[in-house]
Amino acid sequence: MECSCWEHVKQSVPVLAMFLTCSYLFPGTLAPSETHEMLESPSDNEAVISRLSREGGVNFLLFLVSKAVPVHERKEPKEWTYKDMIGLPAGQLEEWRAACQREIEMLIKRNVFKMVVCPSGHKVIGNCWVFYVKPDGRKRACLVAKGFSQVEGMDFNQIFSPVVRFKTVRLILTLAALEGWYLSGLDVRNAYLYGELNKEIYMEQPEGFHAQGKERYVLQLHHALYGLKQAGLAWWQALKKSMEELGFVNLDSDAGLFKCFDKASQTFIIAVVYVNDAIFLRPSKATVEVMKKRFMECWESRDLGELTEFLHMHIGCAGKTIHIDQAQYLQAMLQQCGMVNTKSVPTPLPVGYALVKSLDKAADPELWKRTRP
Q1: For the whole model, what pTM was predicted?
Q2: 100 with 46, same domain?
Q3: Comparing C-alpha atoms, which of 111, 173, 217, 192 is closest to residue 308?
């Protein structure tokens, strides 16, 4: 009985592997140019496949090679480069290109840069695209400056930026539970872009989005961009100035904690700000909503309503009880480290375990950065 086409294909797999190896080691010996031209685009009909599978030989192997689909290692969007992104299927590519376009339009709206001819003697820094998917499924593309190429004293001076401490956040949540305060959250969109720069910084045009007819132009930055050394400090200076205009003052003990005295009710409104995340709280919900509205007039934000999450912490409020956990964050870290299916234990380490200094190399620094809150 005559074998089917599929049987011929399965029998040819070992021969195909040998053929590919020999073609790589000795190019030109197994694939004459005239044969390649003859089979450059064979018809995908049953008759041709059947004939090639019966005859075998070089022509059949070339046909299989022409139909081979390259297998790429799966990467997370955060690991992509722009070249990885443009290699996606058409549907996905269109979605991510749209995300890049939205990012550029937002930068133009915020007057982050101006396109100019680079003055002589000025250094131009690079940039890259960073892709990620938000928890709600939205695709985001962020243009990040390559701040590692900046020179201290020339491109920046100070870079320190204070942020609220985690223990302060837990203390405020404890007070809110004891006093029955109303907590409401905000998600500030692109907080760093509000910071103004006091240095002349020039940056290349974003990859894949060079202005037609102005390919040699560069971007002169007016506002901070993610990745710049001084971006955090510029954000903090803009935030402090804005909060003072709203009547807030920050604590000396923790710069990320702000308070505002409301003369009408003779009580304080408290705000906790950590870059893109903010919490407003006090006993009166109406007063909190008014202050949030004033803040959102200065900073474009998404109103999250009653607080449910802050800095990767899930927060559940029920009366005078507040539950805090990081289950979702820990699950994501287990997935990144490939430990989702590992066996759990009731304690992190065996009872009585004595720590001994390891002589092995330090843990992977890239993995350590990804697993930080």
Answers
A1: 0.68
A2: no
A3: 173
